[in-house]
Design goal:
Structural class: alpha/beta
Number of helices: 16
Number of strands: 22
Largest sheet: 7 strands, mixed
Distance between the termini: 59 Å
Strand order of the largest sheet: 14-17-18-13-12-19-20
Shape: globular
């Protein structure tokens, strides 16, 4: 594994005066050194991005396709190496790290396909007398320079969800990876640099929050795409000026388990959704509402399967759960759990912390006012409560300021329809967990969960502007 990473400034790998030590969350040892971009470095990246815009705009779709597929092919070739890096920097168990690299590869393939069918329209204008003998042709053009800010929990694929659509749309992008997990994105920079993409089109710059704030405020950026916490995201929107803003801000995803559900299959899917990557997933299954007639069976099976999860080094194939991203976040989860217990909640499994590791934890006797229910816990903690009627379950799910995705386990068509029509979220997942996502589907939330949609085609649409020719 490389131990020194230069940052990628518009086609050039450089060092700066500000070193950034990357620490393994599992061993707490330094695994690599990279650099933080300062204002001068960011300015150079912006200048190079602006200089690349005309060439990017004129790049024919077959060349965009070839570039995107070349990146996808290289990701496939380097998968084993990239998986080890991702696992080491994030403490993500290697089986989940492997799935992430596969998804990143698929995201580039989808972007390659979508770049061949960028939107355009023809329509008649003679709906009114003024439009007689006139017609309109609408084409979509690149919006311009994009600022992308990616989080630690999917350090490759969530960076790719900003970079791949930008290449497909013909927009230059400057991406800020999380300072705790910058290595995957910098490895991606090496792959991108080998392609014929115009130099300047991509920069990958780890930055401090202060330096990175220019991505939010600088009017030369025409779109800000941010994935992270609601507190940070909505503040960015206030400070973003006239640029377009897309926010993916997570949530406290719920699961409804109906009486008709297959409990064995439901538990199998839900344990993974609850505790994969220690719950550090935007669509982590956090709140469970189970029909009272199957509640005891569901809880018993859930506890038994959770007890079988193996804690260990994330780089080992047998590991199911490992440390959280840092001890500070593990302590935050611990404090939320303790606060809930003080307010009357009951721990039925787990609840203990050891350094950066927090046990998979199941809690009941909760209220929607407790932080472990009302906020995004972003940790390996779930709540399980009973419901008597499906309408009551829907009300429980909707009683939150978030609205990203929900999982519904039922075999009744009426309940499926009610869930889709009445639950206030961006996605309803039937007979699967809310963690389900494939990379070409529209993905995003409402309320505090965000603004706009990701998913390659939908991200491309945000990265383009319509222009009409009337003739």
């Amino acid at each position: 594994m490389n131990t020194n990473y230069k940052i990628y400034v518009g086609g050039e790998f450089v060092e700066t005066q500000n070193e950034l030590k990357v620490v393994s969350p599992f061993t707490n040892k330094i695994i690599a050194t990279t650099y933080l971009a300062d204002e001068k470095t960011l300015e150079l990246a912006i200048k190079r991005a602006e200089a690349s815009q005309n060439e990017l705009k004129e790049l024919p779709s077959y060349l965009r396709y070839e570039i995107l597929m070349q990146i996808a092919d290289e990701l496939k070739k380097e998968k084993k190496y990239l998986v080890e890096i991702l696992s080491s920097e994030s403490a993500k168990p290697i089986k989940y790290a492997s799935a992430e690299i596969e998804r990143a590869t698929q995201t580039f393939i989808v972007a390659a396909e979508e770049c061949k069918r960028l939107p355009k329209e023809y329509f008649s204008l003679d709906w009114t007398p003024q439009g007689k003998k006139k017609e309109g042709i609408v084409k979509y053009f690149p919006i311009g320079l994009i600022a992308g800010i990616a989080p630690f929990n999917f350090p490759m694929n969530l960076a790719v969800h900003k970079i791949a659509p930008a290449i497909a749309a013909g927009c230059p992008i400057i991406l800020k990876p999380a300072s705790s997990t910058p290595l995957s994105a910098l490895e991606l920079a090496k792959i991108i640099d080998k392609t014929n993409l115009p130099k300047g089109a991509i920069s990958i710059l780890p930055m401090s929050r202060e330096s990175g704030n220019q991505l939010v405020t600088d009017e030369r950026f025409k779109l800000l795409s941010f994935t992270g916490s609601p507190i940070v995201g909505w503040e960015m929107k206030k400070n973003a000026g006239k640029k377009k803003v897309v926010l993916e801000l997570g949530g406290n995803a719920a699961v409804i388990v109906a009486e008709s559900a297959n409990i064995k299959n439901t538990v199998k899917k839900c344990v993974v959704a609850a505790f994969a990557y220690s719950g550090q997933i935007c669509i982590h299954a956090q709140r469970f509402y189970v029909n009272e007639k199957v509640f005891d069976k569901f809880v018993q099976d859930f506890i038994e399967m959770t007890k079988k999860l193996k804690f260990g080094n994330p780089i080992e194939e047998s590991t199911d759960v490992s440390n959280m991203i840092d001890e500070e976040n593990a302590k935050r989860v611990e404090s939320w759990v303790n606060e809930a217990v003080e307010q009357g909640a009951k721990i039925i499994l787990g609840g203990k912390r050891n350094g950066g590791y927090f046990e998979p934890t199941i809690i009941t006797n909760t209220t929607n006012k407790m932080k472990i229910c009302s906020e995004e816990i972003f940790g390996p903690v779930i709540t399980i409560e009973k419901y008597s009627s499906f309408d009551e379950a829907i009300n429980f799910v909707n009683d939150t300021s978030f609205g990203l995705q929900v999982g519904i386990f039922t075999n009744l068509v009426s309940e499926m329809e009610d869930a889709f029509n009445k639950i206030d979220v961006g996605g309803v997942i039937l007979n699967d967990a809310p963690t389900f996502r494939v990379d070409h589907m529209p993905y995003g939330g409402i309320k505090e969960s965000g603004l706009g949609r990701e998913g390659v085609k939908y991200a491309i649409l945000d990265m383009m502007e319509a222009k009409i020719l009337v003739k």
